[in-house]
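Schema walk-through. Below, the input block comes first and the output block second. Nothing else is stored per chain. Lengths vary across the set, and this one has 316 residues.
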Amino acid sequence: MIISSDKPSWLRIVLTYSGSALHRIWLRLLLTTLLAVVVTELYIDFDLFHFDLTITPFSLIGLALSIFLGFRNNTSYDRFWEGRKLWGRLVNTSRSLTRQILTLIGPRPQEGAAPPPELADARRRLVYRLIAYVHALRLHLRDQGDLDALAPFLDAAEREALAAEINRPIALLQRLGDDFRELWDRGWIDTMHLPVLEASLTALADIQGGCERIKSTPIPFSYTVLIHRIVAVYCLGLPFGIIDTVGVFTPVVVMMVAYAFFGLDAVGDEIEDPFGLEPNDLPLSALSRMIEVNLRQRLGERDLPPLLRPEKGLLA
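--- output ---
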């Protein structure tokens, strides 16, 4: 899911909680601020923590930490944006393959002869299997095994056979390839058109491979651990470094700095895998539904499900 693109007011953005990093970091932010309050209280009332420590080390570490967090977040966003581009290609390729199915598949027309009645059923079956592929890819990327979403597009026997498959989207592409071969053997696909249809299936497999690469190759764990540790040590140690300079305002300064660093750290974690179900992940359900509606309209259907709309500002 993803935050709705409807732009709210500046004040609403500032005050929003749902979908922000605050819901992930509030506990660590609270603990860091409470530590700063305790340090300030002991410093003022009990004359403790009078270290001969300047703010310079924290300035240098904070600068380096900002660079590391910026690099990591850029890497995470690159993964997010590549995932979105791949699903954009999936939208276009699905539409193109549907057009090819509806225009390139069928016997050569003979003068005065009507198209065979089974042609429309064959085209519908192929388009429905393509829609099932899109939904199966969404379930595959989100590690969801429920095949009920495919029930409107595949019969019970095919769903049962699909349940045993490890990679169900690829199995559906294989079935589409088998269908194209059967129709070519029957003479319903011209020899010049078969490579065009095969190229579309290859494009779908390439898109899926790109998505699987993003999902199966996270940012190296050691780098993530290093960033988490440096952020934690920096924010927990900050009150001791600025108490002599800031005094009673130490908790406020610590809270603002910790919010920035903890927030950037959490955002990088959240968008690293763009195919999940967190508020800032890609809206795969909405994209799948849009593809389904577009393809079924090409079949001339009118009883279509509605496009998904944001609920409480979130689009699934």
